[in-house]
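Person: Show me a sequence?

Helper:
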Amino acid sequence: MPIFFADKRTRNIANLHCGRKGLEKKIIKNVVKIFDNFGTFKDDLLVAIGPAISKEHYLVDKMTLKEFYRKAENKNITDKLTKTKNDLFFSDSNHFRDQNLNQLDLKRSAYRQLLNENIPQTNINISNLCTYKFHNEFYSWRRSKTISRQWNLICS
């Protein structure tokens, strides 16, 4: 999942790609810390979460899901979540429980990690495009099992 960062005051930028393991290792926290070191104020940091696999198409077993939430999620973040337009983008439904599969929502986890780093909700934009579903527009390893690339660009 591509995540774009831009400081609207200093014009510093960063672009990262992360998935489940990157979120588990708190890569977002590390990038925000780099911006802090360059003097970025959290209110000036704009973040866009680009097209990525949606939870409807990212199915994992129960153990993987538990391990992910143990490593990637902050138990205190629930207190910070309020009902906003961005929050309504997420759904807690899971139609695959009877198949012993669970939906993993990478975009939601990235969003929560950004909130945990005190990035204002109004500064976070989340694409609703799914790379798995839109096969003519995007590459998806989970869909095709072939190696390919997607390019992302950010200019300052």
User: Anything to note?
Assistant: The first helix runs from residue 20 to 24. The first strand starts at residue 2 and ends at 7. Confidence is low (pLDDT under 50) at residues 77-90.
